[in-house]
Design goal:
Layout: E1 2-8, E2 13-19, E3 24-31, E4 34-41, H1 44-61, E5 75-81, E6 86-92, H2 100-116
Antiparallel strand pairs: 1-2, 1-5, 2-3, 3-4, 5-6
Length: 123
């Protein structure tokens, strides 16, 4: 299972994306007390693609400097749990722009959320 969490409920919304190895996608967003949830099925290849991106980003996140957050910035949390490994990453949302591997991962997860919600979830 891969889990991606970003945002805050009272400022733009908190979005959580969960993707299982068989391609099941659950997208949830809490925004100002309003909850939206979407269940979709993606090709299992999407899980494998995102897992590869996550492994590449793991190496990059370790080298990112810990900046002072700017107003409106949130923590991004990523977790992948497979039978052979667990990957946990956490960083400030603006740090994605400092590393292409991290940006590719976040862009792919955002695209999955948008696709799985029929375009209702936006970033």
């Amino acid at each position: 299972m891969i889990t991606y969490e970003t945002g805050t409920p009272h400022f733009g919304g908190r979005t959580v994306v969960r993707l299982s190895a068989n391609g099941e996608v659950l997208v949830e967003q809490n925004c100002g007390g309003r909850h939206s949830g979407f269940n979709e099925k993606a090709d299992p290849a999407v899980y494998r693609e995102i897992l590869v991106l996550l492994r590449k980003a793991r190496r990059s996140v370790a080298d990112l400097p810990e900046p002072v957050p700017v107003p409106g910035e949130t923590r991004v949390r990523l977790r992948a749990a497979t039978p052979s490994e667990t990957i946990d990453l956490e960083f400030w949302s603006n740090q994605r722009w400092r590393d292409p591997a991290v940006d590719r991962l976040i862009s792919r997860l955002e695209r999955l959320a948008v696709e799985s919600s029929g375009g209702i979830i936006r970033f």
